[in-house]
Amino acid sequence: MYTLKKSLLATSILGLSISMVGMFSLQAEEKAETKPEADVVIATVNGDKIMKSTLDGYMAILKKSGKGDQDAAVNDLVATEIALQEAKKTDILERPETKKAISDYTRNILLKTWTKEKVDSFDIKDDAIKAAYDERVTKLASKEFNARHILVKTEDEAKAVIKEVADGADFAKVAKEKSTGPSGSNGGSLGWFKAQTMVPAFANAVKAMSKGDVSKEPVKTQFGYHVIKLEDSRDAKLPTLESLKPQLTRVISQQKMLAFMEDLKKGADIKLTLPEEKKAEAKTEEKAEEKKD
User: Fold this and answer.
1) Could you tell me the CATH number of the domain that includes residue 193?
2) Which residues span the domain enclosing 49?
3) Most buried by CB count within 10 Å: which residue of 33, 58, 106, 234?
């Protein structure tokens, strides 16, 4: 007679170990379908078989948590099988809440599996990926800038700084002395950046400058008044088509899936029977969400 030993994971066979073993039982069934020759029976409990694929999946999880005792794992599987057999003797599967949970789970698995298979079935042509890549790249910045700035509170202060620099003062030194921005201690250096990472007024000013230029007029933003010096600019390094191909393929597949679903919806016989008060509540909630966005 088989004697249950103390589990590595828990003393209760109704805790986490059972749910984990159950999950890997499902995986084991899938593996058994694809590679039946690799699966063998490792134990039999009152006539019900426990497969090696289930043990392998369970062991993989145990090893990730630093536990890899095979005897303890087998013990968990046996204990779980005994608990399941006892559970089957009850009316649990006949209860309305259980039937609903099973129905919901089945619907989710069916939908998830079908959606994945449908998305994977779309034939995404290379020219479609190239077109999506070209569209993506045109939206990216073609230039990067390296600049310093001096941030002050008033326009008069900014004009005084512009005159001081024009008279020969070192820009970085003036930034350390007078800039109220966090980059002041670093001589006003902002390093390399793309224009779209800056507020529009600042970005537009930088894009209109040439290397070595200092802004002739203060640039006003919500932070104050800026005096900018453009140190340098360069062409931005754009991502390659190959690096973006997996992402673009997913995006195109999703777009195709949405179009496919729209076609199905157009051909479906849909009758909405939601009560009027419920519709009103739904519209109110929808407007509230739009305001948040």
Assistant:
1) 3.10.50.40
2) 1-90
3) 58
